[in-house]
Design a protein that fits this description.
The complex is a heterodimer. Chain A is α/β, with parallel strands linked by helices. Chain A has six helices and five strands; from the N terminus they run E-H-E-H-E-H-H-E-H-E-H. By secondary structure, chain B is α/β, with parallel strands linked by helices. The chains are: A alpha/beta, B alpha/beta.
């Protein structure tokens, strides 16, 4: 395996139980050389932050399919600030709302919450990996 | 006569004394006299003591000498505190909650890095103490270090309580010490993102209040006579509420409760309650709530802020809250409240005065309780609706207690408490739905809080004996003005 490209904390947030998307991504991330810290499903915001501190993570990636992300994600960036994770990247993707008809608006909402990247459910793993390599400066 | 305790409150307007017999668990008498803030408070206290009667007779020198004296104070501006934190909703909010629970008046709140303008404002705020927080334990340390350096290099000469990231609290104390600032370090108000820890900061603030701030305010002459002034008055009320709710030893309490305190300048709400309703599945958001929670509304008071209430809610709303048809045509509410603003120690003289007081107090209580309790909102999801709760759910609360001047002198104090109840007009505000009402007719709650520091069982029994339950008109919505 090549030199590690960075450490990623992954999981689904709050009451979300949909694990398939994030499992596929974790598999892709590992294969390409990232260290993955998988927290599994129904992870509270605090646990993402704690795991990121302990593992000195570069990014937190949240997958969501329940349509609740708009309710479950606000406050995560602020918690990272208190916890001293000032440079950490936050990514979120999936079915973020029950109504995806206005993607521009949804995207903007999550950017305002402090996320660095926001993806629709149709995004392929390659896109996310390319963005990670750009954002973390670990392009091969 | 032994067993006599004198419970003293040095208020900004009045010095109040309550005499109790802890053995018989009886209130012997109470009196108040104008505070003498510019004259070391002792004169006002002596005047009040002259007025107090025990079994119909003035208190004798012997009893006075032997009695145990416990005092709290809100005189000379109360305990004015500036809170500094990192993220507004996290460490700053945690610091504010610690401060309010310590009976402080929060006169400034600052988040992220302080700049020169912020410092000027803090210097101008005339505060008695600064509570410095920021970062969870092991979390961000740059911001609190920056803020400590800024504050250390300021002209401020007030004590500091350092209650931030444990990793740098020693270093922060050194920074402040090196510029001759008095600083005490204590545990972090938010050691972890999901753990609020307000008690250590609260007791640290109280300690500094007792040992340093009282002197700074020139109240130390009174201390020579009565011993330490134990705490700021609002903290005494919160302590009484907690004792009454939880009980002490084998003496049971009365369970979760809310105290509504209406004053001339502010309205305080204290709740001793977990604030979660097990029968209602919700997603809880926001900072964890303290079990003993106090909120203060600095813009709601029925004398100093009578005009503010009318300006905020409108004359029509306040008139609607007046529970009896009086000659409203003769009443110019704006003119009358402006008179109250000018005459802050005005005591109602006729029915109209009493009724307007009720209208103002009901308006103040409605808003203050709304700001204290949590809210619930529904969001759609693919599985139906989910409920998101912020703050405390107090809908099932069983007990509501009213304290403050209006509950002692107004003929219909229960009308004030009714304004604290849940209404269908505001269905997302989690206010108590059908609690029992208790009225503090004798204005004893602060005294109960003081007494609890030495005689908790007697204090509890006296509170249970003297708070009177009143009849409720069960449904606020059926209330017609």
């Amino acid at each position: 395996m090549a030199k590690e490209k960075g450490t990623l904390v992954t999981g689904t947030i709050g009451d979300d139980v949909h694990s398939l998307g994030i499992r596929l991504l974790e598999h892709a991330f590992k294969n390409i050389g990232f260290k993955v810290v998988p927290l599994g499903i129904q992870t509270p915001q605090e646990d993402f932050v704690k795991a990121a501190i302990e593992t000195n993570a570069d990014a937190i990636l949240i997958s969501s399919l329940s349509g609740h992300a708009r309710m479950l994600c606000p406050g995560l960036r602020e918690k990272c600030v208190e916890a001293g994770l000032k440079d950490i990247k936050l990514y979120v993707g999936g079915w973020l709302t029950t109504d995806d008809s206005n993607w521009e608006e949804t995207h903007q909402q999550f950017i305002e919450m402090g996320f660095n990247r926001v993806y629709q459910s149709t995004t392929l793993p390659g896109q996310i990996i390319a963005d990670l390599e750009t954002d973390l400066g670990t392009m091969s | 006569m032994d067993n006599v305790f004198l419970l003293i409150d040095f208020g900004s307007t009045y010095t109040k004394v309550l005499a109790v017999d802890v053995e018989k668990e009886e209130i012997l008498g109470r009196a108040q006299s104008a505070s003498t803030v510019n004259d070391n408070m002792l004169k006002g206290l002596r005047n009040a003591l002259k007025l107090i009667t025990v079994h119909g007779k003035p208190i004798d020198e012997e009893t006075l000498k032997k009695s145990v004296k416990l005092a709290c104070s809100s005189a000379a501006g109360g305990l004015r505190l500036v809170a500094v934190g990192l993220v507004p909703e996290l460490t700053l909010e945690a610091a504010r909650r610690a401060a309010l629970g310590a009976g402080a008046k929060v006169v400034g709140s600052y988040s992220y890095e302080l700049n020169e303008d912020d410092l000027k404002k803090i210097e101008a705020a005339g505060c008695d103490i600064i509570l410095l927080s920021g970062g969870t334990d092991g979390g961000n340390k740059e911001v609190i270090l920056h803020n400590a350096n800024m504050l250390a290099n300021s002209t401020l000469n007030v004590p500091f309580v350092v209650a931030g990231n444990r990793v740098v609290s020693g270093e922060i104390k050194k920074i402040l010490d090196s510029r001759d600032k008095y600083a005490e370090k204590t545990e972090n108000v938010l050691p972890d993102l999901d753990k609020l820890n307000v008690e250590p900061a609260r007791s640290c603030i109280r300690e500094i209040f007792m040992k340093r701030i009282i002197q700074a305010k020139g109240l130390d002459k009174a201390q020579e006579f009565i011993g330490d002034i134990l705490m700021p008055t609002p903290m005494a009320t919160l302590k009484a509420a907690q004792l009454l709710a939880d009980g002490y030893g084998h003496e049971p309490g009365i369970g979760e409760l809310m105290v509504v305190e209406v004053g001339g300048a502010t309205t305080n709400i204290h709740s001793i309650a977990e604030g979660c309703n097990p029968g209602r599945p919700v997603i809880q958001k926001g900072l964890p709530e303290p079990y003993a929670k106090r909120t203060v509304e600095g813009d709601l008071g029925i004398r100093y802020n009578a005009q503010t209430i009318v300006e905020m809610l409108g004359t029509e709303k306040v008139l609607n809250e007046i529970p009896r048809i009086i000659e409203k045509t003769n009443l110019d509410l704006r003119e009358y409240t402006s008179f109250l603003n000018e005459h802050t120690s005005y005591v109602p003289e006729n029915e109209q005065d009493f009724m307007v007081d009720l209208g103002l107090a009901r308006s103040a209580v409605e808003v203050a309780v709304e700001r204290h309790v949590g809210t619930i909102k529904e969001e759609w999801s693919p599985h139906g609706t989910v409920k998101i709760q912020y703050g405390k759910d107090l809908t099932d609360l069983k007990t509501l207690i009213g304290t403050g001047g209006i509950f002692a002198y107004n003929p219909q104090p229960q009308k004030v408490l009714e304004a604290a109840l849940y209404t269908v007009n505001n269905p997302f505000s989690l206010k108590p739905q059908s609690p029992e009402f208790y009225i503090d007719h004798n204005y004893i709650l602060y005294g109960i809080g003081l007494l609890s520091s030495m005689e908790p069982v007697a204090a509890l029994k006296i509170a249970k004996k003297y708070l009177s339950k009143t009849v409720v008109s069960s449904n606020r919505n059926s209330f017609t003005p």
